[in-house]
Amino acid sequence: MTLFDVTFIFCTLTGTVIGARLGASYGETILPGLLVGAGLGAVAGVAAYALLVSCLIGLVRFIEWWRPPRPPCRQGRCGPNDYEFLAGREDLSEADKQLMQRRSQEHLGFPYRCRCGDRYIPNNDHSQWLEVAPDGTLRPYRYHKPFGRKWLPA
Questions:
Q1: Are residues 61 and 101 in the same domain?
Q2: Deepest in the core among 11, 51, 64, 88, taking most CB within 10 A?
Q3: Against a cut of 0.70, is the pTM above it?
Q4: Number of folded domains in the chain?
């Protein structure tokens, strides 16, 4: 059972119980008010769950939108969409294969190559990009602050 399932059950049951208690307090007989209140409460609980999930999805989408795309390359010729994702490729050079192994050992992101041929690797949360030198050393290239939208020189 996932957290979403538990939250759905909790919202629905809470709405049903509150609706039943409110419905039972109205009218001359308890049963009709109880049933109507429970039904309306269950609907209100499902609506509350839908609102909660919608807010969470909206928050995740806002964070993804707010985060800056990949930085421009060091040469200045390649933009955010001009990078090639190196993970999962069959035709990797030996240096790229070593970089993939190093990535998992040092807890870095997946490496990229721009059209100019320069290689970059982000840290795990993509807040800093490291340039991979021809000899394999990593140099800080660009970073962005936690709530920043611009890439700053390292």
A1: no
A2: 11
A3: no
A4: 2
